[in-house]
Amino acid sequence: MIAKHIHCLPEHDNYARLAAYIADAGHDGEKCLMSWHVGCWSEDDYALAVLEAETVQALNTRTTKEKTYHLLVSFRPEDEAKLTPEAFKAIEERFAAALGYTEHQRHCGVHKNTANLHMHIAYSMIHPEKYTRHEPFRDYWKRDKICRKLEREYGLTVDNGRTKDKQRALSEKA
Hints:
Elements: E1 2-6, H1 15-22, E2 32-38, H2 46-59, E3 68-74, H3 85-99, E4 106-111, E5 118-124, H4 139-154
Antiparallel strand pairs: 1-3, 2-4, 3-5, 4-5
C-alpha cells in the first residue's frame, strides 16, 4: 500500500470539484466502486455534505494556504480480494486518526480505473467547529507508518517504505 498527499496550489483548491471526482459524478460509476462521506450533518446526501464542507471552509478567512488535503492510497492488484467495503472505511479512519483529521469533514471513494485499486480521500483541513486550519507536520512519516501497520493487520503485500537509515531519498514529487 502506498499513500501519497497530492498537493494543490491555494488558487486551484476546489473541494467540490475534488469530491465530485471522487464520487465519479460525471461518469455514472464507470470507475468508482463506492463513495462515502464522514463528519457531516447530512448523513445520506453526498452533494449536501460537499456543500456543508465548502461552507465550513469559507468560514475560515484567515488562511491563505490550501484548505483541502487530498490523499491517495493505492493497493496492489493481488490485494484486491482481501479488501471489503468495511476494510476501506476502517483504513480511511486509521489514516484520519494518524493525520489528525478524525473530527474533520471528508469525502472518500474507491476507484478501479487503473491497474491498481486505489482510494481518494478529500479532507477538509478546516475544523468544523473551531474553523482553524490543521496541517499535519511531517505527514509522510505518519502515512508510511500507518501503511506498514495496515499491511500487517489486513495481510496485504508489504511495499517498501521510508526508513530512517536511508540516505536522503527522492522527493515525494519524484
